[in-house]
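Notebook entry, structure prediction.
Reason for the run: the old model in the group folder had no record of what sequence produced it. Starting over properly, with the input documented here first.
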Amino acid sequence: MLGLDQIVQNKSLALLFRKFLYERYNNENFSFWLEAENYKHISSDDLRSRRSKEIYEKYFNTESKYELNVDHIQRKDLEGQLGTPTNDLFIPIQLTIRKLMEMDAIPLFVKSESYKKFKENELIEIELSSTERDRSVTICEMEEFLKTHPAITK
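New structure, fully documented this time:
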């Protein structure tokens, strides 16, 4: 069974998964997962503090268009830790989101025509429109993730 680890280990496959989610207006989970993964590698306290607030506003603010559906307890725990953010701040929610993707989005993706074509060809050029580039999973986040994970292939 295809899992998130296999998806992010291949740039073309990760971009295809991102596009699949985008087309279904459901890419916030993947976006958050990537941003949380990138956040783990921040070494500067100032940058970590700034990024934790940005990620919180983007995915946990009730007025955000990218708000994630997480339980009240996880949200309150996160809010309580924002004052002194550590590199593992988002891990509990990231694990929850990962499970959701592996139980829902990834099985749907595996059944999709785009994934079937990918498996046949193993190399697909992903065309992204400017509006897709601006959506919650930014290409910049994907590229940052790919830089910090050297085992990933293009």
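Summary: Residues 4-148 form a domain with the Regulator of G-protein Signalling 4; domain 2 fold (CATH 1.10.167.10).
The old model has been moved to the deprecated folder.
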